[in-house]
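User: Modeling request: complex.
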Amino acid sequence: MNKQLFNSSKEIRQDKLGRLLVYSALTVVLVLALAMLYFIFSKGIATFTQNHINFWDFLTRSNWNTDNLQKPDLGAWALMVTSAETTLLAVLVTTPLALVIAIYIVVMSPKIGGRIVQPLTELLLGIPSVVYGFVGLTLLIPFLRNWAGGTGFGVLAASLVLALMILPTITSLAVEALNGVPQSYQTFAYSLGCTKWQVIVHVLLKISAPNLLVAVIFGVARAFGEALAVQMVIGNTVQLPLGLFTPAATLTSKLTTDMGNTIDDTLASNALWSLALLLLVMSLIFNLLAKLVLRRSQSRESISR
Amino acid sequence: MDTYLNLPEEKDSDIVAKDVNIYYGKQQAIANCNANFPRHQITALIGPSGSGKSTFLHSINRMNDGIARVEGELVYQGQNLLDPKVNVYNLRHQIGMLFQKPMPFAKSIYENLALPLREAGNHNQADIAKRIDRVLKMVDLQHEIGKDLNKSALHYQVGSNSGFV
Amino acid sequence: MNRYRVNQIMTGILNGVTLLVVLFIAAFILYLLASGMTAINWRFLTTSSEVGLGIRDQLFNSLYLLLLTQLISLPIALGAAMALTLYVDKRSKFASFAQGLIQILSSLPSIIVGLFGFLILVLKFNLGFSIISGALALTFFNLPILTQSIAVSLQGVPDEVMQSGLALGISKWHTITKIILPEAMPGIWSGIVISAGRVFGEAATLIYTAGQSAPTLDYTNWNPLNPASPLNIFRPAETLAVHIWKVNTESLGQDAATVSRGTIVILILVVLLFNLVARYFSTTMRKKVGR
Amino acid sequence: MMGKRSAFLTGLTVIATAVTLTACGGQSGSKTASSDKALSGKVTAVGSTALQPLVEQAAKDFQAKNPNVTVNVQGGGSGTGLSQVAQGAVDIGNSDIFAESKPCVATDKITEHKVAVIGFAPVVNPDTKIKKLTMAQLQNIFAGKVINWKQVGGKDEKIVLVNRATGSGTRATFDDNVMKGKKSLKSQEQDSSGAVQKIVGSTPGAISYLAFSYLTKNLQAVALDGVAPTTANVLNNKWKIWSYEHMYTQKKASKAAVAFIKFMNSDHVQGDLVKKLGYISIKDMQVVKDAKGNVTNK
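Assistant: Request completed. Predicted assembly structure:
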């Protein structure tokens, strides 16, 4: 009989400690997340439960008028559209560039990439959004004004500022994603006579696609939640962004502009929290979409294997 | 499909599998496996790719806890290994396992060899160095990597992996 | 056109676009540096904003807050990331729930995190406008980002490494801490640096928590309980980013623009320094790790 | 017997605890009471960013005189200031507007103190060639009835409106004194003087309004109905666009808070600081404006 098999050992104790540590850390994060969600949710629904704003109206109308308490005219539709539009434009501009840079860093020239290109892009992360806002205001806006006429303020200006801001986020994560592809795959593909470009397209991009998508989603999330910089260049007018040069307002810019001027537990304040709630719901939707894409790509992968 | 690997008598065997069934979720990987693995012998499991050889081996070492569901009994020196009360670490100290694909740790070669010893409770630096030296001599890699012991083990992955994993 | 030609053209485009973007970023940063360089002198760095328009205290506050924030959030984020990648069954409902939750948390606008911090920390827990409120609010902001980036780095370590460790009879916890963690370290480091950059430049979260005033500090007083001590965590603290924000939005006079441009330069230089140090560590580590 | 005795003991403990508690409370109370001369404590003032520079500077001077008092001045906006002081979360709420003009503020719980006056001027980008307007023209411009500077005697250029955020103190002052109930055209909204300053200064055809202290060379302040936007004209209400800066305290304010408010009205602050920082002293005003906007002579 091998009694020793049933004895406890230091490994068991180590594992107990480890499990305790990691699960308590995870609990902290989750409790925090739930607390914030609950907080925003409870404040956000007050507009509908206390102030009796029609939920459907709130989603579909495009005016923002909280002064008239008898007949408030409140709707977040224009804000949502603007948020989506600026984010989408920013991501469309940035993603190809970020991918190119990431490929350069990982494949083309890891030496220059690692020493110059990546540090330079990551430097952008440390610049506060206020600075982006003011540079946008002093350089980009006059440029757009001279180039396209009008005031320069608007969706395009906001998108371009956002595009620069999310460039480092997407790039860094894309680099991580590409680095996650085992080197042996590349070696193998080269040994079959693939050109660099073929390796990039058929091996690297294909294998890391789900993680690249996650990188883009991170970028979307950052662009979506950015407030200060956008607020300075978008022109803050609550209306549907019909053109690229229409001054408009996003969920976050409206939130930031008005928050300090509202009184707790009034319609004006509750409505802003409702915007926060909308932001949450929209990022939830992004998240689910991303999950769906990831799951699909994974199931396809497992079939092909 | 039932699998019978009846080689010697059970009393001469160190490991005996009795009606082992292994499932990944709903998918069954091993069906009713009965096998005796005789003492002081090398037994080879042969089969086509995907037939469950690794799955079976993994369960002897309890490496697929939480990944696969293993039913039946795997008796090792009179004890059922699949008993949840078994301390898997003590088990793994007694039954070793080599993987198909070598997976050195991202440390120096020396550290790769020293870490398991240290983790097993040997903290005598001199003794560890002696043991490593002996092992390298045993596999005749002393001259090839003896001077590179402080280099990353990962660089030796392709050429001479079978040597020291 | 054969594939070699395609290869030539496409790699050329890759190089060209990278060059353009790099030049653009460099121009942007050089512009910021150049427009603020004139504001920088020894006095600017060594006096307080109340006495000589300097940013000594803001610089210290920024670094101190960053340090506290990372000290609080790093262990938690590390643990949570380990739990998510190495403990929780990735296919389980709980795993996707937890990941989704963290993802959502990370996409919250920082102003909301700031207001949450204000209402909960400053008012409810009565911590007041203080460094500790700011550090905790920044932790709220930082945790999801850091957790996610550490999780990505941990996932980059092949599963087989865990298997090998376990097969040697090493406990799961020691396999993680002594084998997997060191291997993931370069990635984790760059994750920390990236999050540090964001924390360092974060203003919206701090406006309502650490506050926007910088009481003059007495750098000879290292008693953490004294209100004038730089180490006191219950004093209000304005950081560089908040200073820029404040100077740009409400400040008066001709000096405002100079101060703000100068502050931007310092901020960029500090972040640059971070990156260089971290990169140095990261590359030496990667060399050692080598996968 | 036992039951009675244990009940008695329990009662004793409760009383003892209560006494200790009140003793603690009394102690802290007596501490503030006995320190009439050497004032101590902590005062937190939150709110209006427009008032913040003045209060900050005053707080510094106040602390120099009362080293045991910590005055903590933060921004956050008038709305934040009012709601936090009404909830009792902070000692002082700084506000650009009368608490009465915000619905839902528990005005019965707070006391008002006027500490300064701010004058506001319409500002335009200099390229519009506009130096003066009538009140009606200004109103029409912001209502969207006039859309080109040519219509009011300027250059042929489209008018770009820049408003302050709805609910902000500056916007409220402008709406009350200029728009007088008329609706403003939907336009850009900015929430900081700094941003408005930069936008108007750099955008051709732009118009907005700023506090006097924010007027710079690259902006053209506009005279209205022949009255120039100067401090002297505000004092006698010839220039109509001005408002008070308020500091609200709780009805039962702490000694330190009361002392600080008193300091805000002292000659040092009103005579010296206020002017240095570009505000108008409350003592120099020849008129009084109430919450509804009615102006009477002092």
